[in-house]
Amino acid sequence: MHKTSIFASSSAPRAALLGALLCLVACDSKNDTTAGSATDDATTTTESATDSGSSTVNAPTDPGTDASTAAETDGDCADHGRVDACCCFELIPGVRPTPPEVEVSCGGESLCPSVTLSCGGPDDYQSQEPCTSASDDAALDCVLEALAAKVPGSLRVELYNTEFPGYWSDTLHFYVLGDGTVFHYAEGFLDFGGYVGAVEHRALKPASFFTDCLAADSVEAKTACLKDATAGDAVEACTEYVQYALSEV
Predict the structure, then answer these.
(1) What range defines the domain where residue 142 resides?
(2) What does pTM read for this prediction?
(3) Position 99 in a domain
(4) Most exposed among 99, 112, 189, 247, judged by the fewest C-beta atoms under 10 Å?
(5) How far, rounded to the nearest angstrom, does the alpha carbon of residue 201 sit from its chain's CA centroid?
């Protein structure tokens, strides 16, 4: 089963990201237009998209969808050099005690090292706020730089709280395209159950949003930016949102 690596060295990718970032910040007004255009497209497209709250695992093809588009979405695109289409994602149903998961069949470079954020207070083991520390501050900044530069590749950030007697975690996945959009989903776990969010194609916010986030002086503020990284409605939904329980209790 394919798993995108999040432990690749960040020195070369970050140099490329910083160069691209200088250009994109200067051209931010153009990015605003691009993001707005993608958002307008999203409004039109999502009128025929599958409802992400559906309980079925595989999204049905809309009757009005062009046949070639349906074939691309439903087919196997494992030969794609990087993630660039819905067919790169497949929701694998879970069977207790194995949870469901999203399998990514396309290639792609991890843009930044792994980063884990410690969230929640000791008095409430289910609390998701605030996120006060990062396992690697430089890696957290790398993620924001990558989202600003919009260089194609993958990013992953884990948020967790392991305060006794419970455990929860949320993981944010970003597969950045070079056109100002991203395939994005989140998955989470709480004690004996969890969820796998819908993989959605969305517009990223403009570069200036992420550069402002980089200037923030707290992990909490930077985490809020990551949770709010996209703009408008989904351009398309690739998989369904599902919840699961690992115990019958």
Answers:
(1) 11-64+109-245
(2) 0.68
(3) no
(4) 247
(5) 9
